[in-house]
Amino acid sequence: MKKKWFVGIIGLTMVVSMGAGAYAASNLTEIKAYLNHDIKVKVDGKPVQLQDEQGSVVIPITYKGTTYLPVRAVSNALDVAVAYDSETSSVLLGEKTDGVSIADGFYSMYHTKDPSKTSYKGKDYKDVYFDNTDGSRSSNFALNPKKKYQKLYLQVAAVGKDIEEISVHDSDTDTELLQTTVSIADGLKTIEVDIGGVDQLWVNAGVKDGGGIFIPLTTSYYK
Q: Which range marks the domain in which residue 41 is found?
């Protein structure tokens, strides 16, 4: 429902927050508009308060009979990723064309670039998460998409023994976004997760004694 609502509201002209330097551009035209306190916004029938990235309330603007809603506030309400490309002056909504590796800023004690640990089935992935310690355990790590992306494509391989459960949660709301299994027979399995509007993710895998988990960071990515 939210995505359908979003498609409908895209028909309205929207504005997005940009850096101060953008306002010095020569292609801007000064106008006289009005903050419209009468406009109410509902998502799936439920009232929502539009807010900017800092959590401050934002008010719709009316100009010559057209209502303008701030892109970031609407995208947050609908859990749709939004970003601004200053090089092309483009507002980017939803899933991006090009993937962004999760390797940037990734932190874990099992993060390694050791060539003896970064290969799977003859291919060297250079930069991986590889947990092959002893004992049955929870193997977990955090990711920080920071509400910039719509999808996570996580590649996972079970080593030694099947992984009976791997889950991805929204850390802020403790909402489970996906739960699945990864068997040795799956090889390098790609897990697709909807992460629109999510600031931080928590990935957890139940790994058996004698088993391990292999995640190539360079080929796991956000879009």
A: 2-93
